[in-house]
Write a structure and sequence with these properties.
By secondary structure, the protein is an alpha/beta fold. The protein folds into two domains: about 280 residues, Aminopeptidase; about 130 residues, Alpha-Beta Plaits, CATH 3.30.70.360. The chain has ten helices and 16 strands. Strands 1-2-6-3-7-15 form a six-stranded mixed β-sheet. Strands 10-11-9-12 form a four-stranded antiparallel β-sheet, covered by helices on one side. It has a three-stranded antiparallel β-sheet with strand order 4-5-16. Helix 2 runs antiparallel to helix 4 and helix 8 crosses helix 10. The protein starts with a helix and ends in a 5-residue tail after the last helix.
Length: about 425
């Protein structure tokens, strides 16, 4: 059976692809706190069960964020045709907060000028819908294929993935998987091989409370924090900007090591509306550091750069005291360009788009980190529709043509790796 028949089967499902993506966007799976996770899993389960898939809805009990009020639900669906390899499509179903500045209903699933708008349309419900349609078209046109197709819709990628893919990997669900595609929005002509590393840490500077009219009788933790941030800005930032990775990270600016000051909180909590704060010297100030490090960097040294600044200030600045807390860390990952899933996807992109794909790496982490480190599976890529810079933005959208083209690529990858029978 020719590629043309399989690609035509995907194209014939274009209306269904749009409808499924709209349905998914209209389920507001906001994280935090973890709304409607069971609802979106049930919605997908109903569709796949009707087509003969084996479906499991699994709660990541005890994972970070899991509670009776907001349980972390995941869907794992399997279509097994017989002996052979297993190709797994993994998408996260959670989305970030809406934010301000929208001109479209963030959960309306509006289609306009070839674009589907909504929170999560790009990141990554459009990719989830494309993987479902690709699998359905492949199963319909290649009934004699060999192996197993899996589709997962998992929780909490936006907050680290510990209630989703990490939990599935810890339970051993990737032990029988051979190939993984994560349909993150990295452009339909790009294959994402991996991502930079990340270390999050909280630094608290300590002071002594005192009356605001006599600050000399206290010791301002905020002033100590200013000293720390000045050291970071003046000494560390230029060093980081000068470090470059050989990984094909996009955009270009992310090929350098980076440090973001994620949040800062100093002094007393904000007063109630209309009230004034009490006049006190701040005895605590906290900053969260988001350090993205390169595959060429060593994590202990990354941490030592911060602790070195802190220790130097403790030795040279009177009264400087601090607490450093590790929040989490992820090492860089990189799938080899000669991995089977890379070759199959690259060939499929050339057949669908008539151009060679670009190999890239992501500036931020995604769930490949758990498949690699916990699941011990290196044969994993991110590939899906959507433009990365639209993720988490107001008026987030995914192109209809991009979803269809990505679904065609995924269907051809299935055909390549699971061996569709000749018709």
């Amino acid at each position: 059976m020719s590629d043309a028949m399989l690609l035509s089967a995907v194209a014939a499902r274009r209306t269904g692809l749009i409808g499924l993506a709209q349905e998914l966007v209209r389920i507001p799976t906001l994280n935090p706190p973890g709304l409607n996770y069971r609802r979106i899993c049930d919605h997908l389960a109903e569709r796949l069960l009707a087509q003969g898939w084996e479906v499991h809805i699994l709660r990541a009990t005890g994972s970070p964020g899991d509670s009776e009020a907001f349980p972390r639900w995941n869907l794992l669906a399997r279509f097994r045709a017989g002996p052979g390899p297993c190709l797994h499509f993994n998408s996260h179903h959670d989305v970030v907060e809406v934010g301000r500045g929208w001109t479209h209903d963030p959960f309306g699933g509006t289609v306009e000028n070839g674009r589907l708008y909504g929170r999560g349309a790009c990141d990554m419900k459009g990719g989830l819908a494309a993987s479902v349609i690709a699998a359905e078209a492949f199963i319909a046109t290649r009934p004699g294929f060999h192996g197993t197709i899996e589709i997962s819709a998992t929780a909490d990628e936006e907050s680290g993935g510990y209630g989703g893919v990490a939990w599935l990997a810890e339970q051993g669900h990737f032990a029988r998987v051979d190939h993984v595609i994560i349909p993150e929005p990295l452009n339909k002509d790009r294959i994402c091989l991996g991502h930079r590393g990340v270390w999050w840490a909280e630094v608290e500077t300590h002071g002594r409370i005192g009356h605001g009219s006599m600050p000399f009788l206290g010791d301002s933790a905020i002033r100590h924090m200013v000293a720390l941030l000045s050291e970071i800005e003046d000494r560390l930032m230029p060093v980081l900007a000068g470090r470059q990775t050989t990984m094909p990270v996009v955009p270009e600016g992310a090929r350098a090591a980076t440090l973001n000051l994620n949040s800062i909180h100093g002094g007393q909590p904000e007063p109630l509306a209309g009230a004034l704060p009490a006049p006190v010297v701040a005895d605590s100030c906290r900053v969260v550091l988001d350090r993205r490090f390169l595959i060429e960097e060593d994590l202990p040294q990354v941490k030592a750069e911060i602790t070195g600044i802190l220790n130097r200030l403790a030795e040279t600045r009177p009264g400087f005291r601090f607490t450093l807390r590790d929040l989490f860390e992820v090492h860089p990952v990189m799938t080899p360009e000669d991995a089977p899933i890379v070759g199959a996807t690259a060939a499929a992109i050339e057949r669908v788009l008539a151009r060679r794909p670009e190999f890239v790496a992501s500036p931020g982490t995604y769930d490949q980190k758990h498949i690699d480190r916990i699941g011990r599976l290196k044969n994993c890529i991110a590939y899906g529709p959507g433009l990365l810079h639209l993720a988490h933005q107001p008026d987030e959208w995914v192109g209809i043509d991009d979803m269809e083209d990505s679904a065609k690529v995924m269907a051809l990858v299935l055909d390549d790796l699971l061996g569709g029978a000749a018709g």
